[in-house]
């Protein structure tokens, strides 16, 4: 690999200092009994955190053509893991029973697994500024005394019971179940009165640290760094054949460095402005090629094409098909070809592949290895890389197979500590075994024992 020039060094350092923890996010559940229809945005791919701007777009059915009645159930803490953890850990006692039944029976509903906490904290202010509401804050949760004036759109804000961090699991379960009952009672009461309304159920902060952080580096190493704002609100690049999507490609940063000094930034052209030409991409059941063509990406280069060549094969050892990214090619001005072999990037054919850092650097777990002399002149940097070349369903990424290794830093620390303690124990036993007792003893009733110095 060519040496890193002045332009490549800041890029590499920026990639290595990615934040180790994901941005805080909470789930948001939306449903409606009236004319509001919740439609998911196709730009929301797997693992995407909904920003405040995207949430405002998703809430437009409430305000068009005129604001309708809206109920906001606001909880202090809630995470998407709570719905599975508490529902599956306590047998038949499902604390979200009412919410699940309402979602299933509602004519229109939408579940957002991850919404930026900044968006939910400002949600009430946004709603108040978006319509001429008859605002009612219910703090005593006495639903029986609720009066709704249907001559004007109503905004009902219900502050649910807080799930403080010092509660044990049983108390948390009871608090969630009580909030679920409140949601069920108010929903049924409004339906019995014949009032059409929309509902938002969310929280202002997550209830626990996510069990599956979506930002990893190499062997799950988490660096102490300032949390990065997630500005990647663009959808993945898709290649379609007819009406079917056959390739999906996403990256938060896609950059090249040629000859160690010229930086070529391709992120915006690929995912934002979509000025990239993908017409040469091909799809089949066995072989897929993602072709990205750029016109004059920088001065001195008239055309640049990057190809990702993938295969889908059956392996008898696992008795299933696997897709593999076999090679990556860079073609400059239709004559200079740089080719790279690829390590690690493979997954079951039904899955997508994800890796936090992919490129030519030896520090990356998923590495592009130069296979000809021209490839030495290029450095590739891709962060938050995700690709799927087969079995794409509904235009969205399937479950992602990650590039993280088996031996994480925690496992290595445990092994090293165990070896040190075992060595200390072995040394101590060895020293105890070397101890000997005295061969002669002093008799207090007899003469003093004299030991000659020669012995």
From TrEMBL:
Gene3D superfamilies per record: 2.40.160.110
Organism: Phasianus colchicus
Name of the featured protein: ATPase H+ transporting accessory protein 1
Record-stated family: Belongs to the vacuolar ATPase subunit S1 family.
Membrane topology term: Single-pass membrane protein
Single annotated GO MF: ATPase activator activity
Chain ranges passing through the membrane: 410-430
Domain V-type proton ATPase subunit S1/VOA1 transmembrane residues, every copy: 405-443
InterPro entries in UniProt: Ac45_acc_su, VAS1/VOA1_TM, VAS1_LD
Subcellular location: Membrane
GO annotation terms (biological process): regulation of cellular pH
This protein's UniProt keywords: Membrane, Signal, Transmembrane, Transmembrane helix
Domain V-type proton ATPase subunit S1 luminal: from-to ranges: 244-390
Gene: LOC116243768
GO CC annotation: bounding membrane of organelle; cytoplasmic vesicle membrane; endomembrane system; proton-transporting V-type ATPase complex
Signal peptide: 1-23
Keyword Signal: yes
The keyword Nuclease belongs to this UniProt entry's keyword annotation: no
């Amino acid at each position: 690999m060519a040496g890193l020039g002045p332009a490549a060094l800041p890029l590499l350092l920026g990639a290595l200092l990615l934040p180790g923890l994901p941005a805080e996010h909470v789930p948001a559940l939306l449903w409606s009994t009236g004319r509001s229809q919740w439609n998911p945005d196709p730009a929301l791919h797997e693992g995407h955190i909904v920003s405040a701007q995207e949430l405002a777009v998703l809430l437009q059915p409430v305000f068009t053509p005129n604001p309708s009645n809206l109920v906001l159930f606001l909880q202090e803490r809630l995470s998407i893991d709570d719905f599975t953890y508490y529902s599956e850990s306590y047998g038949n006692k499902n604390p979200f029973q009412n919410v699940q039944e309402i979602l299933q029976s509602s004519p229109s509903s939408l579940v957002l697994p991850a919404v930026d906490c900044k968006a939910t904290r400002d949600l009430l202010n946004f709603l108040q500024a978006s319509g001429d509401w008859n605002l009612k804050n219910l703090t005593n949760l006495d639903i029986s005394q609720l009066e709704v004036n249907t001559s004007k759109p109503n905004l009902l804000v219900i502050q649910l019971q807080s799930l403080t961090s010092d509660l044990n699991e049983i108390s948390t379960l009871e608090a969630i179940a009580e909030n679920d009952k409140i949601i069920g009672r108010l929903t049924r009461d409004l339906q019995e009165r014949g009032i059409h309304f929309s509902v938002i159920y969310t929280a202002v902060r997550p209830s626990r640290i996510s069990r599956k952080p979506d930002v990893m580096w190499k062997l799950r190493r988490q660096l102490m760094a300032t949390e990065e704002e997630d500005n990647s609100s663009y959808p993945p690049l898709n290649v379609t054949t007819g009406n079917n999507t056959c390739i999906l490609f996403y990256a938060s940063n896609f950059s090249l460095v040629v000859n160690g000094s010229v930086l070529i930034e391709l992120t915006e052209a690929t995912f934002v402005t979509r000025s990239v030409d993908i017409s040469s991409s091909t799809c089949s059941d066995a072989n897929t090629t993602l072709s990205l063509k750029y016109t004059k990406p920088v001065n001195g280069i008239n055309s640049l094409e990057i190809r990702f060549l993938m295969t889908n094969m059956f392996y008898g050892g696992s008795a299933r098909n696997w897709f593999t990214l076999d090679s990556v090619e860079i073609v400059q001005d239709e004559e200079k070809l740089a080719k790279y072999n690829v390590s690690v990037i493979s997954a079951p054919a039904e899955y997508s592949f994800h890796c936090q850092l992919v490129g030519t650097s030896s520090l990356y777990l998923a590495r592009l290895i130069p296979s000809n002399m021209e490839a030495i002149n290029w450095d590739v940097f891709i962060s938050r890389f995700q690709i799927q070349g087969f079995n794409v369903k509904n235009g969205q990424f399937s479950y992602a197979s990650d590039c993280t290794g088996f031996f994480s830093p925690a496992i290595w620390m445990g092994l090293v500590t165990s070896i040190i303690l075992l060595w200390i124990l072995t040394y101590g036993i060895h020293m105890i075994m070397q101890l000997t007792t005295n061969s002669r003893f002093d008799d207090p009733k007899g003469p003093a024992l004299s030991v000659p110095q020669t012995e």
